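Complex record, two chains
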Amino acid sequence: MIAVIGLVVGVVAGLLLQPTVPLELQPYLPIAVVAALDALFGGLRAMLDGIFDDRVFLTSFLSNVVVAALIVFLGDQLGVGTQLSTAVVVVLGIRIFSNAASIRRHLFKA
Amino acid sequence: MSEPEEPTPPPEPVAAGGWAALGKALRFRASRGQILAGVLCAVLGFALVVQVRQNNEASLSGLSQADLVRILDETTSRGDALATEVNDLRSERDQLVSGSDKRQAALDALRRSAETQGILTGRLPAEGPGVVVTLTEPNGQIKPATMLNMLEELRNAGAEAIDLNGHRITASSAFAGIPGAVTIDGAELATPYVWTAIGEPDTIATALQIPGGALATVRSNGGEGDLRRGTKLEIRSVRALGEPQFATPVPPAAG
């Protein structure tokens, strides 16, 4: 419940504050958001599996974000930033899909 | 990275099914895990909204350097292509304009030339300043030679268009007949002979009136001449010219 409230609070805060993303963060923010989404779905699935652990959730959330940003940073330095960003998004997307499928199986038994 | 990989032993089996587990998780419990998840979700929601807004606001600022360079390249080459096209079209337009100018100039020159030729050959009606000379025969008869002398005098004085009793006088006009029955180009003339000549009035008047000149000859024939100057005379008579039968233009010398 608190998670849902937190999500709503974050969205409202983003809408109200209307912050501008610093220039250095702009390439990393979209990837970080996708990585965080992956962590969120992973956490949801773990909760339904009954193995949710807040420490693991925190670690996976932060590490997902940091690793995704690092990969993009590295790709930018190597000159393959666009392709590597695409790769990260594809991998995270697959994980989100598989997590979503697992959640679906838990909820709908199908 | 995600939970299922962690070797955490399942503390409680979810036998009641997914919905029960979800409902249990959604219950308001101020546990450490719940608060932590809430904070992280807040961060995620915030970042999500910010990113979406950013993406909508400025499409270019979110792009990587390579993309920007590519877009710049594309824009530059597109601009170059358009500039080249502009130049091509401009030069084409210039060519067309100058072409039509030349054409127009040639047409104007031809039209002026045609007007000049038309007046000089008697093909076109003419108007302008000039003199009207009326010859009568109160005491005698005017000879054809006198009429020719009159015409020569008018031409010498620079008359550009000449009319005699409604007959346009041109280069091929010829007087014939006998005194009292003068003919012009085969048409008999009746007195009074009315000459209308368009040209510089003073010059013509002076030329006709010099001693021993045209009017003096008329008087020696027993005729009378009356000379009037006009600032705007009209010659309506025209003369149709046939195609030259023998003469053809000399082709312009090459080069």
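Note: The CA atoms of residues 87 and 93 of chain A lie 10 Å apart.
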